[in-house]
Design goal:
Shape: elongated
Helix content: under 10%
Structural class: mainly beta
Strand order of the largest sheet: 1-28-33-30-31
Mean pLDDT: 91
Distance between the termini: 24 Å
Strand content: over 45%
Low-confidence stretches: 1-25, 50-58
Number of helices: 3
Radius of gyration: 26 Å
Number of strands: 34
Oligomer: single chain
Length: 543
């Protein structure tokens, strides 16, 4: 996988972390873009009436043109255009990119060979573009034309009112039956519940419940990928109800597949809060993770636990770096000190309380879940405690979606595991992350101009020796600083991405930018060692 990563041992305010170096490509380079091609046999050849070879005899020249394009970024295409001839010729080529712009070049093509030309083009807007190649052999009076329909890799976000698409307990979206051990459920996304057919990815809150054994759930765009991937979206133990945000690529058939990786049947629920499509809608913008609500302190709402079967509204647009025009916000929603089992619901203000859930909990549990919530017309969102007893609520903003942002989501068509501390990887020997320590991870090449605006990562902890919480933050150094021993010690964050108790396996999504050098830090904020995993599900990019 070639990800360069490093370990850091931070034992005190003045400690200098040690780093290791490994070669290879960064994750953004590892994600394979979609390829579009039109073979030579699709060439349309025309001849000028009465055209003759220079000798006066009828020409036997044959001309073909074909092309292959691969997405090179959210808005970009890498094109390989080919021209082939049966006799030596100079061929004039025009590439029309489908947005009103063209490139031209001339090639001296050898007999019975083909000439290949590379070009990169960046589009001003997301969408589908017809790329057309026209090759002219003026000396022999013939022209060859071929074309492809290219779809940009990037997609922008459209909020969706929280809607339940799947509930195997009641037969919504699938038969009313538990998903069997090592079984898979196919969930229709594109063309369902007002989600358009051209949607490429979806934001779901997936929940597993009625569990009688331990296991995990994996989501993917194809059934075989869901069943075979080494990545996971959420983990569970017997008796647990566990949710997690899933941002998944949608298969060509319009489905997302959810695999029960346990050895006992489970029920699965899935609630949609938005989707991504290759059209202009809402681009993403990261913000420094900022706490906007903490009922323990009276921050953002009244001080004191939220009473059972009640809730509050909080303004998110126009504060904490979120502009007034934001259509949705990316949040980390945490419940703590709950007096009995229940759930929290996050939804746009001014709407009826949906029959969905955002975070599920049991008495005494502290649990966090990433959510993407549409913003109400008044710039507010609503939080409701679905339990019958009080619970404290903490809310951190990590980003937002707005029509003014150009940063589009590029999905990992196949989720990619970047690191698993239980295994040797990228010169990092297998071993847990020490308590009060962090792992410095390079996600881009050693750059001063990161090309990724935000990363969508699923983080998981396991083999936990005691309670704690995980934080994922941008690293303030360049990778060369770690190599040279000139790095500064990152400031310990106070916000959490996920929380755990001893012996637990817990997952949660982190949407985070890289630092100025394209690096992030994964912090073990507990006092005991823990194993951790980081899976890549996509990133946001503006070019």
């Amino acid at each position: 996988m070639g990800v360069t990563s490093g370990t850091a041992q931070a034992s005190g305010p003045g400690a200098k972390p040690a780093a290791t170096t490994a070669g290879g490509a960064a994750p953004a380079q590892e994600l394979q873009g979609r390829t579009f091609s039109s073979p030579a046999e699709r060439t349309v050849v025309t001849s000028e009436p009465g055209a003759q070879a220079p000798s006066g005899a009828q020409s036997s020249q044959h001309l073909v043109a074909f092309l292959t394009a691969m997405s090179a970024g959210a808005y970009s295409a890498d094109l390989q255009s080919y021209v082939g001839v049966t006799e030596n010729a100079t061929v004039d080529v025009t590439v029309a990119w489908g947005d009103g712009t063209t490139d031209t070049y001339s090639s001296a093509v050898s007999s019975a060979a083909s000439d290949m030309h590379r070009a990169r083009h960046q589009y001003a807007a997301l969408g589908t573009y017809q790329i057309k190649i026209t090759a002219k052999d003026a000396a022999n009076g013939i022209e060859a034309v071929n074309q492809i329909d290219f779809v940009t890799a990037g997609s922008e976000f459209t909020p969706h009112a929280p809607t339940r698409l799947l509930d195997t307990r009641s037969g919504i979206g699938a038969p009313a039956a538990k998903v069997p051990a090592r079984g898979t459920v196919a969930l229709k996304i594109a063309g369902n519940a007002g989600i358009p057919a051209n949607a490429t990815s979806v934001a779901l809150n997936v929940t597993v419940t009625n569990t009688t054994g331990g296991g995990h759930v994996s989501a993917a765009s194809q059934k075989d990928l869901a069943q075979s991937t080494e990545t996971s979206n959420l983990n569970y133990d017997a008796g647990q109800t566990v949710p997690n945000l899933v941002v998944s690529y949608i298969g060509a058939d319009g489905y997302v597949y959810l695999f029960n990786g346990g050895w006992q049947p489970v029920d699965l629920l899935a609630d949609v809060t938005g989707y991504f499509a290759p059209v202009t809608a809402g681009g993403y913008k990261s913000v420094t993770q900022t706490r906007v609500v903490d009922t323990r302190e009276g921050l953002g709402t009244a001080r004191g636990p939220v009473a059972g079967q009640s809730g509050f509204d909080v303004t998110v647009a126009g504060r904490s770096g979120v502009p007034a025009g934001a259509t949705a916000v990316a949040l980390n929603l945490t419940v703590t000190n709950p007096q009995e089992a229940g759930h929290l619901i996050a939804y746009p203000s001014g709407q009826a309380v949906p029959t969905t859930s955002s975070v599920n909990f049991v008495a005494g549990q502290t649990v966090a879940n990433a959510v993407i919530v549409p913003v109400g017309a008044d710039g507010r969102i609503s939080i409701r405690n679905g339990s019958w007893q009080p619970a404290d609520v903490v809310l951190d903003v990590v980003g937002y979606y707005t029509p003014d942002s150009r940063s589009a989501f590029v999905p990992a068509r196949v989720p990619l595991r970047l690191v698993d501390s239980r295994k040797n990887s990228w010169n990092r020997p297998a071993g847990p992350l020490h308590g009060r320590d962090f792992f410095a991870m390079r996600l881009e090449a050693d750059t001063t101009e990161p090309k990724v605006d935000g990363w969508v990562l699923n983080t998981t902890v396991t083999n936990t020796g005691g309670p704690g919480f995980l934080s994922v933050t941008p690293d303030p150094n360049f990778w060369s600083d770690y190599q040279n021993g000139t790095q500064t010690v990152p400031q310990r964050p106070v916000s959490s991405t996920l929380n755990w108790t001893a012996g637990a396996t817990v997952a949660n999504v982190a949407q985070t930018p890289g630092g100025k050098g394209g690096m992030i830090d994964v912090w073990n904020q507990g006092w005991q060692d823990t194993d951790f995993m980081v899976d890549l599900f996509g990133y946001y990019q503006s070019f």
